[in-house]
Amino acid sequence: MLQIVSRKVEIPEGVKVNIDGKRVEVIGEKGRLVRDFSSSPVSINIEDGQVVVYTDDTRRKAVAMVGTVCAHIRNMIKGVTKGFTYKLKIVYAHFPISVKVEGDKILIENFLGERAPRVAKIVGNTKVIVKKDDVILQGINIEEVGQTAANIEQATKIKNKDPRKFLDGIYVYEKHEGFEE
């Protein structure tokens, strides 16, 4: 007996989804995202306005990958329709931190009074806006926006000091769908 595990993702109006084998392209008003799922043990089709992800492999990891691929496709659709915004707060008690954007890098200056600036990489097409004590990240790819936020948090990680006393850093305090100024 062949058992097929499948899940469906609804395609909203104004979004076009193209599937070429296991390569998924999602086009919407905010842009275009492409992702290759060739390493996943799933099959992907479009049936009457829905993306259908399925597998005939009944092993636990293969069944789990069906849900994972659906979540990725759902995030791609949200990205091209609404986009993603992450807000980070610049927190300091000892030395005032200044943040600048230079090309594909973020320079964090005067962190704990250090002379050399700390550097965080901007991933992909993530837009970075610095307003007073806030750093706002915007983009259509949730992975690029999230990785850029993680790079910034990681760049301001404090080692060899008491974390209860030295709370200085840049921390994510809000994540949501949609762009805002």
How would you describe the overall organization of this protein?
Strand 11 (127-131) and strand 12 form a beta hairpin. The termini are far apart. The strands form 4 sheets. The chain has a 4-stranded antiparallel beta sheet with strand order 11-12-7-13, covered by helices on one side. A 3-stranded antiparallel beta sheet has the order 1-6-5. Strands 2-3-4 form a 3-stranded antiparallel beta sheet. Helix content is 20%, strand content 42%. The longest helix is centred in the middle third of the chain and has 22 residues, at 60-81. The chain is elongated. It folds into 2 domains: 5-81, Ribosomal protein L6 (Outer Surface Protein A, domain 3); 84-177, Alpha-Beta Complex (Outer Surface Protein A, domain 3), CATH 3.90.930.12. The mean pLDDT is 92. It has helices at 60-81, 142-155; strands spanning 5-10, 16-20, 23-28, 31-36, 43-47, 50-55, 84-91, 98-102, 105-109, 118-121, 127-131, 134-139, 169-177. With 181 residues, the protein is of the alpha+beta class. It contains 2 helices and 13 strands, in the order ββββββαββββββαβ. The relative contact order is 0.16.
Q: What is the structure about, briefly put?
A:
The protein is an alpha+beta fold and 181 residues long. It has helices spanning 60-81, 142-155, and strands at residues 5-10, 16-20, 23-28, 31-36, 43-47, 50-55, 84-91, 98-102, 105-109, 118-121, 127-131, 134-139, 169-177.
